[in-house]
From TrEMBL:
Family membership: Belongs to the sulfatase family.
Position of the signal peptide: none
Gene this protein is translated from: atsA_78
Name used for this protein in its record: Arylsulfatase
Domain of life of the native organism: Bacteria
Regions annotated as coiled coil: none
Residue ranges annotated for the Sulfatase N-terminal domain, each copy included: 91-500
Molecular function terms, GO-annotated: arylsulfatase activity
Key words of the record: Hydrolase
E.C. designation(s): 3.1.6.1
Pfam families associated with the record: Sulfatase (PF00884)
Length: 808
């Protein structure tokens, strides 16, 4: 263990480092001391040895440093070296988490999409068909890695919609230490690859704090993206806390890149320290929108979904029953009323929707393929038999955020814009390519969540929360290839890992007393298909959709559909339903009228659990909560109306940049043009699918507003700038009268107007989830046309002294 690193981590208690003065044996439950003498003794004195090591306080305290009286080192014996190692025989741990993938998608759980890696692991592992998530990404991820409920960890919703209320602040408390930190402090090498989405948006700037970034949440290594989604062709990647550009290779795709990084890390880690187990978190950005996948993979699925979402859903349901994935008596609930019957659709709609499903199916299969490469690499270094693998097929149900017809640009959802089939049809051949940022129609989400009715965001239906999981561990599972039906939840993973690795739940981590882990280890199920459930009570809540489970019963209310963000009913008017889950796997038969007393008891239980876990007050707002002022959460810039930027400042995520939306603003850039001219980005925000750019093209200053990749407005000077210093100023006079309105853009050079033009409409809520604001460069995808693509081509070739952005 790197003790210099550990000593500088936050919240260290001095007492925790020096309070224990013990004589250790060479190996005591994984704490190793190298050498003959004992710490805490004078010279070569020896003493008694402890019988065990206390791992409930992390980090495990160092013995007291010895004091010597000998003058000459030749007369003294060196002390033993203190090193924490994992318990003998502890397995490696690999947690695989796929994004936005529902229960009825994968072949392993009866779905139409081949997932041979998941199938292979299931053949000698265990399929869990009663495992649950939180219905949304950030909450599931936080709960997964700390073993507490998402509200207990202040992650009641995604980080970008955090509020000021306990349970929803987005700031993971130190009292819920992550599993990775527990493993690291117990002698494991730790690494995370892929999607993070657990850092509060106001903590993603260069100023930090970095406490809730992966490398301060227990991971020695992180390679991935920090937010909720990324462009798979042009991702925003961090290596640790440093932004890095993706490799410049033909056909680059992030899933392949993160897999390469994970393979390289695990092979090197085992090469250097073969006796040290690893803990790896492998969380793909796939299959979250944008649905980006190579064209050759898409072609493999041509025609596979021609029968439409109703037929695909029905066929999945039948396969699930035949395979025993679901009980034979399971009923198939009707689809939500807002989803059209496939047979009622016009033919051109069907043509578009088929392609959307082909792309999604390819995305799932492509993801499983690369997971297979990682599994193969672990097998190649002879570590698979003693690696405990959790392959969780979805952090929630399949996403229905594509609305009724899908989207070529997912950012339209966040800006309240509805796309039309007639506009999407010409893009069919490009669907899934870097020229689109696509999502599929909600009808497919319902189909891929079979046999359930609802989807992602609906925490009160198993379509939002029940995800297929395979656990694989040859040395720890005696009779593989079976199904486990015990109730499980994402908070059960952490205690399962601890028990499998012979580690106690810590009571103090880094000097901070810990809230108890709220999950229940699933290890009891590994060798017993008939063991009674141990996780017997669980609440669910997300954006007003809420439910309570206890001992085979579920009470719930559907407050809002995922595609509905306005005109929501009052929470007090919600109608509750009651289901006997032990006899009704898919929640098809509402028993509220037959058992009103039971329903009343369950509703009261929900309130008890909601108070206990900081679920209240319930906040059913969605898009409005993306605005820090409305949500009441911290904002890096607060009420500031001016931001001064300098060359080299890049990678500023939207929540850490001054908000220029729905208001007038000015951008003043002090430039220096060399002999021969200059070109490139001066200041940009966003990317190909929405944003704005102040730049020089052929030495001519210009401002381009890119409205959701659908319409572009260009204001450009007719004359080039001469060599020397110049002040370029853009004034945007917003029309007012609401959100997303237009305005007039005026461009001037050294105080003289050179161009003016209308911008008819603007994006009211969000430019991008992962594209950034950059000075002197346009990272990832280009906002404007004609100044290049990516950081190499768009880099400003002159000098930028400073840029000042001011808002009214």
């Amino acid at each position: 263990m790197n003790w210099n690193y550990a000593l500088n981590r936050p919240h260290r208690s001095l007492a925790s480092w020096v309070s224990l003065t013990l004589v250790f044996s060479t190996t005591i439950l994984g704490a190793t001391i190298l050498g003959a003498s004992a710490f805490g003794q004078v010279g070569a004195a020896t003493g008694s040895q402890p019988a065990s090591l206390n791992r409930t306080t992390l980090p495990i305290p160092q013995p007291q440093r010895p004091t010597y009286t000998e003058l000459d080192v030749r007369d003294a014996k060196p002390p033993a070296r203190f090193e924490v190692t994992a318990p003998k025989g502890a397995p490696n741990v690999l947690i695989i988490l796929v994004d936005d993938l529902g229960f009825g998608a994968t072949s392993t759980f009866g779905g139409p999409i081949p997932t041979p890696t998941l199938d292979r692991l299931a053949q000698t592992g265990l399929r869990f068909n009663n495992f649950h998530t939180t219905a949304l990404c950030s909450p599931t991820r936080v709960a997964l890695k700390c073993g507490r409920n998402h509200h207990t960890a202040n992650a009641g919703s995604i980080m970008e919609t955090s509020t000021a209320f306990p349970g929803n602040t987005g700031a993971i408390p130190n009292s819920v230490a992550p599993l990775a930190e527990m493993m690291r402090l117990n002698g494991f090498s730790t690494a995370a690859f892929g999607k993070w989405h657990e850092t509060a948006p106001w903590e993603t700037s260069v100023s930090g704090p970095f406490d809730r970034w992966p490398t301060r949440q227990g991971f020695d290594k992180f390679y991935g993206f920090i937010g909720g989604e990324t462009d798979q062709w042009a991702p925003l990647i961090y290596d640790g806390v440093k932004k890095v550009n993706p490799p410049q290779v033909e056909g680059y795709h992030f899933t392949e890149d993160m897999t390469n990084q994970a393979i390289n890390w695990v092979k090197a880690q085992q090469s250097m320290t073969p006796d040290k187990p690893f803990f790896m978190y492998f969380a793909t950005g796939a299959t979250h929108a944008p649905h980006h996948v190579p064209k050759d993979w898409i072609e493999k699925f041509h025609g596979k979904f021609d029968d439409g979402w109703d037929a695909v859903r029905q066929a999945t349901y039948e396969r699930q029953k035949d395979a025993g994935v679901i009980p034979a008596e399971t009923k198939l609930p009707p689809r939500p009323e807002d989803i059209a019957a496939w047979d009622s659709l016009p033919e051109d709609h069907k043509t578009l929707f088929r392609r959307q499903a082909e792309v999604f199916g390819a995305f799932v299969a492509h993801t499983d393929h690369h997971i297979g490469r990682l599994v193969d690499a672990i097998e190649a270094i002879d570590q698979m038999d003693n690696t405990l693998v959790f392959y969780i097929a979805g952090d929630n149900g399949t996403s229905a955020e594509g609305g009724m017809v899908g989207m070529y640009n997912e950012m339209t959802y966040f800006n309240g814009v509805t796309e039309k089939v007639k506009d999407l049809l010409p893009l069919i051949d490009k669907w899934g390519s870097k020229e689109t940022f696509p999502h599929m129609a909600a009808g497919w989400a319902v189909a891929f969540d079979a046999p359930f009715k609802w989807t992602k965001q609906v925490a009160s239906d198993f379509g939002g929360t029940r995800n297929g999981m395979v656990v694989h561990w040859p040395q720890g599972i005696k009779n593989g290839g079976a199904i486990r039906t015990q109730f499980g939840h994402v908070i059960d993973v952490a205690p399962t890992v601890l028990e499998a690795c012979q580690l106690p739940e810590p009571t103090v981590v880094n000097g901070v007393p810990q809230l108890p882990i709220e999950g229940t280890s699933l290890l009891y199920t590994f060798d017993s298909a008939d063991a009674p459930d141990r996780h017997t009570t669980q609440y669910f809540e997300m954006f007003g959709n809420r439910a309570i489970y206890r001992d085979g019963w579920l009470a719930r209310t559907i407050h809002r559909a995922p595609w509905k963000t306005t005109d929501l009913p009052p929470l007090t008017g919600d109608v509750w339903e009651l289901y006997h889950v032990d006899e009704d796997y898919s929640l098809a038969v509402d028993l509220a009228a037959e058992h009103p007393e039971k329903l009343a008891d369950m509703k009261a239980l929900f309130m008890t659990e909601a108070i206990k876990h900081h679920v209240l007050p319930i906040d059913d707002r969605t898009i409005e909560r993306a605005n820090p002022a409305l949500a009441g959460r911290p904002d890096v810039l607060g009420d500031r109306t001016s931001l001064t930027l300098y060359e080299g400042m890049e990678g500023m995520l939207e929540n850490t940049f001054i908000n220029v939306k729905n208001r007038s603003c000015t951008i003043t850039a002090e430039l220096e043009i060399p002999d021969g001219g200059a070109s490139g980005a001066v200041l940009v925000q966003g990317g190909r699918f929405g944003g704005w750019s102040l730049h020089l093209r052929e030495v001519k200053p210009a401002y381009e507003y890119n409205w959701l990749g659908m319409q572009r407005y260009l204001v450009e000077s007719p004359t080039a700038l001469p060599a020397g210093k110049a002040t370029v100023r853009l004034e945007f006079d917003y029309d007012g009268g609401g959100y997303g309105k237009g305005g007039t853009a005026t461009l001037s050079v050294d105080g003289r107007q050179v161009a003016q033009g209308r911008i008819e409409k603007t994006q009211p809520n969000l430019f991008s989830a992962d594209e950034t604001a950059d000075v002197g460069i346009d990272n990832q995808t280009p906002v404007a046309k004609g100044i290049g693509y990516g950081p190499h081509e768009t880099k400003f070739s002159g000098r930028i002294h400073r840029v000042v952005v001011e808002v009214q």
